[in-house]
User: Fold this.
Amino acid sequence: MKLPAADLGIMAEHLSTHEGMISKLKAYESAVRHSDLKHLLYVHVYMLRAHVKTMLALIDPDQTREVHLPELPLLHFHQHSGALSAAEKDITLEARSTAKFMGSGNFNSALMMKHPNVRNIHLQMSYQDTTLQTLYTRLIRRGSAEFVPMASDQAQRLTLQHYQHVANE
Assistant:
C-alpha cells in the first residue's frame, strides 16, 4: 500500500508513544493485586499491541490487502473482587488518563490522515481507547475513588432557558 507521507509521520510518532505506554502499563500490571484491575491492564496492553501490529501492517509497502483492526475483547468485572488500594486507585486513574489521551490522539490524527483505510482504523482505535476509558471509570466508581460534582437543578434550568432560543431559530 502506498501511504501519504503525512500518514506515515503520524503513525511513526504513534508507534513510539505506544512503546512507552505499553512499558508503563506492564509495570502497573505487575504492581497490582486487584484481579479486575490486573485484567483490565492486561487487556489495555493487548489492545495497544494490536494497534502497533495494525499500524505496522499499514506501513508495510508490500501489504496488498486492506488492513483491519482486531476487536477489543469483551471484559467483565467480578462481583466481589475487593476494594482498590490507594496505590491501585492512583494506577487506575493514571491508566484511565492514558486511555483518554490515546483516544483523543487517535481521533485527532484520524482527522488529519489522508488514506481512507488509515483514517478509518485510527477512528476505530479511538473508539477502543474510549471503551477502555469507560471501563476504568466503572472500576473507579465501583470503589468510590472519584468525586464528580453535580450541577444543581437551578443551574440546569437557567442554562436551558438561556439557550432555548437556539433550537427555535
Summary: The two ends are 48 Å apart (CA to CA).
